[in-house]
Structure formats: C-alpha cells, structure tokens
# Entry
Amino acid sequence: MSTQVADHYTHGALITAIERGITALGKTTDSITPDDLAPVDEFHIGGRRASIAFLDQLGLGENVATLDVGCGIGGASRFAAIHYGAAVTGIDLTAEYVATGRVLCEWLGLGERVQLREGSATALPFDDASFECAFMMHVGMNIPDKAAVCREVARVLKPGGCFGIYDVMRIGPGELTYPVPWATTAATSAVAGPEHYRAALTGAGLAIEAERNRHEFALGFFEELKAKAAGANGPPPLGLHILMGATAPKKVQNMIENIAAGRIAPVEIIGRKPA
# Structure
C-alpha cells in the first residue's frame, strides 16, 4: 500500500507548479514568505488556524527536537520552526514531496533548522529517544497499521515526550464517497475511529492526555472557503489545488459531504510517554 500512497501524492512537476504560482503572486523565490506559501503548505483541514490550535498544545519551544511524521512538503515543519523555534525533522514516503520541501526550506532560509527525509512512519530511521515531541497531521488515513506508527514514535521519543495526532477519523456510519484528498478509492484509505488511535497509543505505552473532535470547526472552515471562492475569479495562484491536481474540486467536495454527513471529522488526540 505504501507504493500506492506515494503514487497518489506524486505530482511530477510540483516545484515548477509552485514556482509558477509564486510568479503569479508577483513574488520571486528570494522574496517569498512563509505566509505566501501557507495556502499550499498546510495540507490539512483548517490550514494555519488548525496548525496553531493543535501545535499550541504540544509544548514546542526554542530548539525542542521535534519529529513531523508524514511531513508532506514540510509546511507544518517550517511553521513549527518559525513560530515556536523548534528544531524539526520531517519524514515522508513521497520522494517528490521531500525534494520539494527541501527546496522550499532553502528559499526561506530554513535549511539548517528543518531537515526533511524520505522514509516510512512505520519504520522510522532514527535512534531511540531522539525527539522531545512528535506530531502527525492528516497522515494516519493512509496508514492501516496505526499501532506500528505509535510504537515507532514511542521508541524515538524521549521520556516525557508527547505525540500529537490531528487526523481525519471515522465518527459515524455510512460508506465514504471517493475520491477524497488522501485517496482516490477505498483501496488506499485507512480511515479509522478515535478508538483505534487510542488503542494504538496506549498499546505503545503512551498515556492519552487530550482528545478533541473538530467537526464543527471543519464545517465552519469550509463555509468560509466557499464564501471566499464565490467572490474570486478562479483558484488562487498558490493553493491545495496545486497538490491535488485537476480532481481537487471533486476531492474537496466529497470530503465536505462526508464530514457534513457525520461520517468523518478531523480529530486531535495527544499522548505522552512516561517520564
């Protein structure tokens, strides 16, 4: 399944598409800012607002060694480094995402503070007790073995370290409508309920500290996007449509339908390794 997942996210000319968007903004790779990149950088429901609401709970701070599991093109990694001062390592299955993310880090002068690597969340290429904090944002929907991810994260966390998860989770019955942003069909979708995440976390020896269903927040976020799109002349120069391609509108529409029907919702769960 990992190969299928990587294929799903591979664009083929992603950095070129982002460069075109930057030009359309009237910017250059020397003048681009993190805020300019945010619309394409934050590949999760709620964008920057969701990042702040989630990451604020994790105790990130200056030089805190932090792991971003399933980092994509590194948007959340860069935000954690800039906003909190964390020293962030990101890992992702999709080679093109990692390569693109490294270029974006260089453009923003973050090449030393943010390190992105290609690899699997279920076999992390790091020594035991390497990180003080870890987080995963909209990644578990592509990983059937939640227990393996949690075991690996628990292994690389230092005693007392936390693992924050912000994933789309199953909250009600009914068949999901596809395609959605993380999967074209059910074959590469591993959406699970919060109870599966709780079991995976506690099974890995992590204590659950907090859990929050963001269903209403998600619906409000999409209403705002809808209103903004109604007054716009086409998509913005930089946005998630660049990552999702021509099928972006359908994927987003289906995701909104699934959320509105009460089948899924973004949920935060935070676990901590005993000190």
About this structure: The CA atoms of residues 30 and 109 lie 10 Å apart. The radius of gyration is 18 Å.
